Amino acid sequence: SYELTQTPSVSVSPGQTATITCSGDNLGNRFACWYQQKPGQSPILVIYQDNKRPSGIPERFSGSNSGNTATLTISGTQALDEGDYYCQAWDSSTVVFGGGTRLTV
Amino acid sequence: EVQLVESGGGLVQPGGSLKLSCAASGFTFSGSAIHWVRQASGKGLEWVGQIRSKAKTYATTYPASLKGRFTISRDDSTSTAHLQVNGLKIEDSAIYYCTRLASEEWQKDWYFDLWGRGTLVTVSS
Q: Which of the 8 DSSP states describes residue A88?
């Protein structure tokens, strides 16, 4: 079965750039999206179609996807960006989530 | 308001059954694919399955690991989706979220743009 692998944790200082990666076999040939989840809350979509931001998501969130790796980049990271981030893609007709990355600011 | 509201969770004994509901409002439910995703305490997101719209023949898909005990259905007349879980195991304890696929038509739009707040299922004797 298809798997997406994420680094369990990333730590950055406020104002720095946070880079969260998601690896999967030929992931660049699929669409990747990213969800943010804060403690006690439901996930929210922050990036879709590899690099698009939904309405209301700050410009400091960006995404890319090439080769075997999708990347979520948060520029000028703020304390309110702290939380868990999950990548997601499709394998045929099934949904696959990465294991999640805890971002500490 | 555009929203999904889950209900039906609770404490269930191992081997028991539960039917969760997902009530939609504020959008055209009948044209949307609805998915269920669960999250055990302190763990990541796990996809439970989907039900597509009438236009897509109400097709359901489940991960191989969960096939057999989980059944998703929908009632477009009440804008509600359901998740039936039989033979509950302790490891089924989790928050169960329903979520909407942005669009069924094109794969580029196969992402989840709306999530409910979840309903907690605890399996314990």
A: E
